[in-house]
Amino acid sequence: MNIKEELLKKCHQFVNNRLQNIEETISSNQTALQSETKSSAGDKHETGRAMLQLEMEKAGQQLANIQQMKETLAKIDVLKKSTNAHLGSLVKTNTGNYFLSISAGQLKADNELYFAVSVSSPIGKLLLGKSVNEQVMFNSKNIKLLSIK
């Protein structure tokens, strides 16, 4: 398995873990909502229901974000080669290594650290379309692209 495949697999694991956590939250909130209906009365009851409803809406938004992440990961072709940074590229710079995919944070592959970043994130937008030896300015730092795979 090459580095890009390994990083893509870790991104899928990240998304699946988030999905599992959100599904558990939704299930827990549904149970709480049902017990809230049966046991409470008055203003306390309405406040509790409203809070649970807000939590359910938040979980629904998180589910939509996860679906979007899954769609982004499905578009990545680890075999695609290009001289310009694109979705699925490994970009090595003088300040760090980036995997242009989804915002999954720091990942380790082949004893190296990579930052999985979305192409719509600030750093992702800067790197997208750039080629080796080009430079970008991010957080007052001059970042030089050393390699793109």
Summarize the structure.
By secondary structure, the protein is an alpha+beta fold. The chain has three helices and six strands, in the order ααββββαββ.
What does this structure look like?
The chain has 149 residues and is α+β, with helices and mostly antiparallel strands. The protein is 51% helix and 22% strand. The protein has three helices and six strands, in the order ααββββαββ. The protein has helices spanning 3-39, 42-74, 122-127, and strands at 90-93, 97-101, 105-109, 112-118, 135-138, 141-148. It has a six-stranded mixed β-sheet with strand order 3-4-2-1-6-5. A hairpin with a 3-residue loop joins β1 (90-93) and β2. α1 packs antiparallel against α2. The longest helix is centred in the first third of the chain and has 37 residues, at 3-39. It is elongated, with a radius of gyration of 21 Å. The model has no long low-confidence stretch (mean pLDDT 91).
Which terms summarize this structure?
alpha+beta, six-stranded mixed sheet, 22% strand, 149 residues
Our estimate of the beta-strand percent is: 15-25%
- Rounded to an integer, what's the Rg over CA atoms? 21 Å
Helical fraction equals 40-55%
Computed structural class: alpha+beta
Strand order of the largest sheet: 3-4-2-1-6-5
Number of helices: 3
Largest sheet: 6 strands, mixed
Q: Give the helices and strands as they follow along the chain.
A: HHEEEEHEE
Distance between the termini: 15 Å
Low-confidence stretches: none
Query: What number is the mean pLDDT?
Result: 91
DSSP strand tally: 6
Specify the overall morphology. elongated
